[in-house]
TrEMBL record:
Self-association and partners: Homodimer; enzymatically active. Interacts with PPP1R3B; recruits the phosphatase PP1 which dephosphorylates and inactivates PYGL/glycogen phosphorylase.
Superkingdom of the organism of origin: Eukaryota
PROSITE patterns for the chain: PHOSPHORYLASE
Single GO MF annotation: pyridoxal phosphate binding
A Pfam family assignment: Phosphorylase
Region entry Disordered, spans: 741-764
Catalysed reaction equations from the record: [(1->4)-alpha-D-glucosyl](n) + phosphate = [(1->4)-alpha-D-glucosyl](n-1) + alpha-D-glucose 1-phosphate
Protein family according to the UniProt entry: Belongs to the glycogen phosphorylase family.
Organism of origin: Engystomops pustulosus
Cofactor dependence: pyridoxal 5'-phosphate
Name the UniProt record assigns to this protein: Alpha-1,4 glucan phosphorylase
Length: 764
């Protein structure tokens, strides 16, 4: 979520009044804003996407809840020490959290372990251990519409009789100490991005959020006139009309067997009815096709923790496979491929398969990604139900990612096209009228300059380092991952360094290369990549022959509040993943909206950014998805590039010989070995095209006016990437809900004004 104060003031239309009031008190509101901790309750783009969606749903007037876990420790704080990443605990609640309200009256029990007992009235899950889920509510205000939704996060609490009933009788002290075991469930966020780690505590977290949220949803449904006690059975028929649950990746996949368990074992619905309602209720968003990221939980672990759910998953699978057999008699390989249970090696549950089978809609998050999902990764499933598969291209909220982070640009745009664009970002196309307007061009470049100066001030304070404001700010900020190819960026930095050294008098377009992002603490290669970047920075930044032509900054502890500072100050946005690996990206969209140009591959939403702005207005380079597939067929040979490209050879030889790690020449051996012998992301294959493309970037940057014209074209073309557009598509194509256009009066207006609401509400 990041910070809440400024976002709240903006959405309530109170920012100017608050700024003025604080100023009158002789205080500085920015200083106050800087004191707030980020709520770092997710890893990278996936969690921030959910936050943008909450803002858009409230702004569009959709009655929606965001459910999650109230982690006591969010994503770790990253320190860079001696060039290495060091993790520190994120104790974000230490000074309290003024935005949340505990709701003990809505506390709910969640069961774990135990066994299944077969009774006359059906299976019963018994002898379980209970953990309580305490909800904490955070208001989610819409933008200037007097509407507030709720984000409800669950915190684990031990019941008061925890460990005091059975074998532990008599050891009271130990029993109280053991309450931690239960409360550990919501202690800490697992810090992996795009990587599955099959830990029992993580599985507990996934069931905990799902079990608490489903009880909450069903209680609310039953309290409504649609699910009242007189008509429980007919009432559940209307459940999918009143409730839509969107699964943000497979992390809440257990919601599917959990809702089935509630319908079957508690509400006593027959299987077919329960299954029909469940499928109509759930929809699944896939966020990655990287195999190492797909959740495949060991059957043994699920059986121990959730024995009844395992039975239900087996029953879902049996009926699913029976259908496949009927459609494709004798095709055993297809059955093996499509099973929810993988049988090679230790038995595992494929959670994506469970989500596809248990949902009425499945979507990818950018056009190219949705095509890969439908036609490659889950082709067997789309063969049977092609209409189930959809695309919903991601988006970002223009409130946080323009009004909040870049008020200068937001105001400049408003001067030209009015303020309505904030709620209808497609109106940014009106800026195309001003592409050749010299005054507008000057004003746009002035806003960028001011944003850069402000960011330089921040960096000089934080890093004790002087930066050249007329240099191009070349920025890659995102989680550190091999597929995102920060290494390709690093090879380019070294290439520029070598060119300056070889030809010191030749003109060079000055650059400040900024790289930032967290590596998962257990991801050895990602941590080594950080060390390489900081080591290259140590050499480059201290070489007097280089001077202010080239600087390399490793931006420590990249997080939402830092993104808000660096993105508006960026000239060049690096979006250079291997084609076919980045599902969408949302960082790419934030930069585009804030007046940076993009150097990128034809991957994720970059493809649609190029479609919107015209390919000639982005710096597109490198292999396309088809080229990558062809190379996989022929075999990728890194040595070939190394021997053919002298500048690449020089760069790799330097890394290998210890030029950047003189006190430890072998330091980057694992990294160089990877690049030569097991680089799944083909860094060398795109090196030449990337370096050439960067030369075109520098050439354009030398012509500031031409550069800014392209910037304006990009801003004008970025309207598609509002999360308001994304959410309207989910609402129409998946949830079947209409965005409300009710004008809700402010709370201090007379009650008569509320009369308008009644007929519309009654209809709903
Ligand atoms: C937007 C955002 C991301 C996602 O960036 P990508 O470049 O799409 O991976 C990650 N972290 C933070 C803090 C963000 O704001």
């Amino acid at each position: 979520m990041g910070r809440t104060l400024q976002n709240t003031m903006i959405n309530l239309g109170l920012q100017n009044a608050c700024d003025e009031a604080i100023y009158q008190l002789g205080l500085d509101i920015e200083e106050l804003e800087e004191m707030e901790e980020d709520a770092g309750l997710g890893n990278g783009g996936l969690g921030r996407l959910a936050a943008c969606f909450l803002d858009s749903m409230a702004t569009l007037g959709l009655a929606a809840y965001g459910y999650g876990i109230r982690y006591e420790y969010g994503i770790f704080n990253q320190k860079i020490k001696d060039g290495w990443q060091v993790e520190e605990a994120d104790d974000w609640l230490r000074h309290g959290n003024p935005w949340e309200k505990a709701r003990p009256e809505y506390m709910l029990p969640v069961h774990f372990y135990g066994r299944v007992e077969n009774t006359k009235t059906g299976p019963r899950w018994v002898d379980t251990q209970v953990v309580l889920a305490m909800p904490y509510d955070t208001p989610v205000p819409g933008y200037m519409n007097n509407t507030v939704n709720t984000m409800r996060l669950w915190s684990a609490r031990a019941p008061n009789d925890f460990n005091l009933r059975d074998f532990n009788v008599g050891d009271y002290i130990q029993a109280v100490l053991d309450r931690n075991l239960a409360e550990n469930i919501s202690r800490v966020l697992y810090p992996n991005d795009n990587f599955f780690e099959g830990k029992e505590l993580r599985l507990k977290q996934e069931y905990f959020v799902v079990a608490a949220s489903l009880q909450d949803i069903i209680r609310r449904f039953k309290a409504s006139k649609f699910g009242c006690r007189d008509s429980v059975r007919t009432g559940f028929d209307s459940f999918p009309e009143k409730v839509a649950i969107q699964l943000n990746d497979t992390h809440p996949a257990l919601g599917i067997p959990e809702l089935m368990r509630i319908f079957l074992d508690i509400e006593k619905l027959p299987w077919d009815k329960a299954w029909e309602i469940t499928k109509k209720t759930f929809a699944y968003t896939n966020h990655t096709v990287l195999p190492e990221a797909l959740e495949r939980w060991p059957v043994d672990l699920v059986e121990k923790l959730l024995p009844r759910h395992l039975q239900i998953i087996y029953e879902i699978n049996q009926r699913h496979l029976d259908k496949i057999s009927a459609l494709y008699p004798g095709d055993v390989d297809r059955l093996r491929r499509m099973s929810l249970i993988e049988e090679d090696g230790i038995k595992r549950i494929n959670m994506a398969h469970l989500c596809i089978v248990g949902s009425h809609a499945v979507n990818g998050v950018a056009k190219i990604h949705s095509e890969i999902v439908k036609n490659q990764v889950f082709k067997d499933f789309s063969d049977i139900e092609p209409a189930k598969f959809q695309n919903k291209t991601n988006g970002i909220t223009p409130r946080r990612w323009l009004l909040l982070c870049n008020p200068g640009l937001a105001e400049l745009i408003a001067e030209k096209i009015g303020e309505d664009y904030v709620k209808d970002l497609s109106q940014l196309t009106k800026l195309n009228k001003f592409v050749n307007d010299d005054i507008f061009i000057r004003d746009v470049s002035k806003v960028k300059e001011e944003n850069k100066l402000k960011f330089i001030q921040y960096l000089e304070k934080e890093y004790k380092m002087r930066l050249n404001p007329s240099s191009m700010f070349d920025v890659q900020v995102k989680r550190i991952h091999e597929y995102k190819r920060q290494l390709l960026n690093c090879l380019h930095i070294i290439t520029m360094y070598n060119r300056i050294k070889a030809n010191p008098t030749k003109e060079f377009v000055p650059r400040t290369v900024i790289i930032g992002g967290k590596a998962a603490p257990g991801y050895h290669m990602a941590k080594l990549i950080i060390k390489l970047i900081t080591s290259v920075g140590d050499i480059v930044n201290n070489d007097p022959m280089v001077g202010s032509k080239l600087k390399v900054i490793y931006l420590e502890n990249y997080r939402v509040s830092l993104a808000e500072k660096v993105i508006p100050a960026t000239d060049l946005s690096e979006q250079i993943s291997t084609a076919g690996t980045e599902a969408s990206g949302t960082g790419n969209m934030k930069f585009m909206l804030n007046g940076a140009l993009t150097i990128g591959t034809m991957d994720g939403a970059n493809v649609e950014m190029a479609e919107e702005a015209g390919e000639e207005n982005l710096f597109i380079f490198g292999m396309r998805v088809d080229d990558v597939a062809e190379m996989d067929k022929k075999g990728y040979n890194a040595q070939e590039y190394y021997h053919r490209l002298p500048e690449l050879k020089q760069v790799i030889d330097q890394i290998q010989s210890g030029f950047f790690s003189p006190s430890k020449p072998e330091l980057f051996k694992d990294l160089v070995d990877m690049l030569f012998y097991h680089d799944r992301f083909k860094v060398f294959a795109d090196y030449e095209a990337y370096v050439k493309c960067q030369e075109r970037v520098s050439a354009l940057y030398k012509k500031p006016k031409e550069w800014t014209k392209v910037v304006i074209k990009n801003i004008a073309a970025s309207g598609k990437f509002s999360s308001d557009r994304t959410i309207k598509e989910y609402a129409k194509d998946i949830w079947g809900v209409e965005p409300s256009d009710l004008k809700i009066p402010p709370p201090n207006e007379p009650r008569e004004a509320m009369e308008d609401l009644k007929p519309a509400n009654a209809k709903a």
